[in-house]
Design a protein that fits this description.
651 residues; Rossmann fold; 4 domains; six-stranded mixed sheet; 35% helix; 22% strand; binds ligand TSJ
Length: 651
């Protein structure tokens, strides 16, 4: 029998490296890194399901703050590893990079951003418990991290894998307690987890994902995601309340050179293009070779089709790709080996072989669908929409050049509402976009006019998702904004002309405020993306509460802070701000605008897929389930879901 002493601790030294530099393995020790632990574990179960051995994956946020993941797959191998002389379970949790990659014919398709696995989770957890049910037997093993006179010891087995009973079930259950000595926060976010599990459910047709939150006594939460339609259901969901041009998404799947390609697409009466791509279940926010292949093939196949049906004559020029993508929602999902990521945020697929694979599958599968007599209407709709789009584009081009001549956008009356600042150095200047005239007035009086400009917004911002460029340019609120920014929009966007270093959205902490924020971010996202990617967009954080006792006042951002501040405090008065309008100019300056005291959240597109999802999802104003997303925008300060890692900038 194995006794776990000095020699083992030697073996474990690899895991200590993870403790020393957690960021290298999971990106950060903030909320993002914390959730990363969970994804590393879930990935293993998803792999098992993708290989056809499991169909249910359950994530539970346990009462004690630990998290468990359970699947009904084959179970992590319990046999003794030939070379290492310990159980497969022990290898998986103690060998860096061992991952779940056992057996030689089963390879891992999924894999988190860093592809590290269970051993990293073990290293960064206070303890881990593993249960494996296989061959009628139940096995268990646990690991612990502790500190003694020799220093830190991470992920040390408390004993070898032990047979603890009999069972008729099969599968793996892993429970881990994230180590509070490592993470800035050890509180997982239910909505972040739910959203990712839903995404995984769409991307892995037929697999059932369950989520339980048992942390609050008497307030258990539960979600279940399971889509027999897979990516087609995903596209339908994304198209939500838009009006589809044809009822069922077009579904294309195939395999070329060991690359599995799955695509669902559907046009709606909208104008924007929403292509969501994934590789091995990882969102490729910056696109890459697979998206290029998709776009190229769609353009070619559709132009060929238009010629075949005589919509385009020999003499006619081909339609452009963007015409076929107007109002298109598509999900592209690839499964392949040796993925390479590029780009600013390493979310762009770089593998050159992905492009021809997607092109081949599209060119093989799309034409027969278009030609199918059952689909005559669908094909005609797409072709017809593209022709209209081409005409509209031409008209817009003319209108735009006319507008440019008259320099419509540069004209003064449009900036009438803007209270500009006196300073002329864009690098120091800030633009506050303020919801409502009264708050706008307070901001105007309270600001430091040397470097802070105020743009009050009246009422709702135009929902740009549903509009063509001409309509955006006709909207007065947006025109003043565009003029104030100085960058131009769309193809004309040029960050060098930005007149402000910080563009701050200041809206109420309620649902309406959340909605306005979302609409503004949608606008920025669609027309001035560089503003977000370069980190110029911020969300101002006005306080929710003012606690006053005698002459001293303390402002609190949220309930948590309020609790801290008022704990043990007696004889104070509490004011809850319902909106910015309730604050006087001095208070607004002091709490929200003064760089010395204020808190602002920078909007970064580290996770732009989430942004796109939310932005797209938000487009329905009246659909009930979408309320929750609007609320999430309202809660911008409390979770980092929207901005990915929404950094808290205290400046
Ligand atoms: F790795 C882990 F601990 F993070 C983990 C692995 C956590 C959870 C919740 C599940 C799993 C897991 C692993 N579920 N299913 C598996 N399957 C295997 O590891 C497995 C089983 C059998 C064979 C085989 O070739 O017979 C191969 C593999 C990879």
């Amino acid at each position: 029998m194995h006794d776990y002493t000095v020699s083992d601790i030697k073996v474990m030294e690899g895991l200590e490296a993870v403790r020393v530099r957690p960021g290298m393995y999971i990106g950060s020790t903030g909320s993002r890194g914390l959730h990363h632990l969970l994804w590393e574990i879930v990935d293993n179960s998803v792999d098992e399901a993708a290989n056809g051995y499991a169909d249910t994956i359950t994530v539970t946020l346990e009462r004690d703050g630990s998290v468990s993941v359970e699947d009904n797959g084959r179970g992590i191998p319990v046999g003794i590893h030939e070379k290492l002389g310990v159980s497969g379970v022990e290898v998986v949790f103690t060998q860096l990079h061992a991952g779940g990659k056992f057996g030689n014919d089963s390879y891992s398709y999924s894999g988190g951003l860093h592809g590290v696995g269970a051993s990293v989770v073990n290293a960064l957890s206070e303890w881990v418990k593993v249960e494996v049910a296989t061959g009628g037997k139940l096995y268990a093993m646990s690991f612990k991290s502790f500190e003694d006179k020799d220093g830190m010891h991470s992920g040390i087995p408390e004993g070898p894998l032990a047979e603890i009973g009999r069972t008729r079930r099969q599968g793996t259950k892993v429970t881990f307690m994230p180590d509070a000595r490592v993470f800035e926060t050890v509180e997982m976010n239910f909505e972040i987890i739910a959203r990712r599990l839903r995404e995984l459910a769409y991307l892995n047709r037929g697999v059932r994902f369950k989520l339980f939150d048992l942390r609050e006594r008497g307030n258990a939460k539960e979600r279940e995601y399971h889509f027999e339609g897979g990516v087609c259901d995903f596209v339908k969901y994304l198209n939500g309340d838009k009006i589809p041009l044809y009822p069922e998404p077009i579904y294309i799947s195939g395999k070329k050179d060991n690359i599995v390609v799955e695509i669902a697409m559907q046009h709606s009466d909208g104008y924007s293009e929403n292509v969501f791509s994934y590789v091995n279940n990882i969102p490729t926010t910056e696109g890459g070779t697979h998206e290029t292949g998709f776009r190229a093939a769609l353009t070619k196949v559709m132009n060929d089709y238009c010629r075949r049906i005589g919509l385009l004559k020999d003499k006619d020029a081909s339609l452009s790709g963007e015409d076929f993508r107007e109002g298109l929602t598509a999900v592209i999902s690839l499964k392949m080996q040796n993925i390479q990521f590029e780009g600013q945020t390493k979310t762009k697929l770089g593998n050159t072989e992905a492009r021809p694979a997607v092109e081949w599958v599209m060119q093989d599968k799309l034409p027969p669908i278009l030609e199918d007599l059952k689909n005559a209407e669908l094909s005609a709709m797409i072709a017809d929409k593209a022709v209209k789009a081409a005409k509209a584009r031409e008209a817009a081009r003319k209108a735009k050049s006319m507008a440019r001549e008259k320099s419509k956008l540069e004209n003064a009356p449009l900036v009438g509402k803007l209270s500009s600042c006196t300073g002329r150095d864009p690098k120091l200047n800030e633009l506050f976009i303020v919801e409502g005239d009264s708050a706008g007035g307070s901001a105007k009086q309270g600001r430091d006019r040397r470097f802070q400009a105020i743009l009050p917004l009246r009422g709702k911002v135009l929902n740009v998702e549903k509009k063509r460029l001409e309509q955006v340019l006709e909207n007065e609120e947006l025109r003043s904004l565009i003029t104030a920014l100085g960058t131009g929009i769309g193809e004309d966007f040029n960050i060098d002309n930005l007149k402000y270093d910080k563009v701050v959205i200041l809206s109420d902490a309620d649902q309406d405020g959340g909605h306005i924020r979302a609409l503004l971010l949608t606008f920025f996202y669609r027309y001035t993306k560089g503003l977000i990617t370069d980190g110029h967009v911020y969300i101002g954080q006005p306080p929710l509460y003012k606690v006053q006792k005698g002459d001293t006042a303390v402002y609190c951002q949220d309930d948590k802070e309020l609790e801290k501040v008022t704990k043990g405090l007696k004889g104070y008065t509490l004011q809850r701000y319902k909106g910015l309008g309730e604050m006087n100019p001095e208070q607004l300056w002091e709490t929200t605008m003064d760089p010395k005291n204020r808190t602002m959240v920078r909007v970064s597109i580290e996770d732009a897929a989430t942004v796109e999802h939310l932005v797209t999802l938000l487009m329905g104003d009246k659909v009930a389930p979408r309320k929750e997303y609007i609320q999430e925008f309202a809660d911008f300060n409390k979770n980092d879901s929207f901005a990915g890692k929404a950094k808290l900038d205290n400046q």
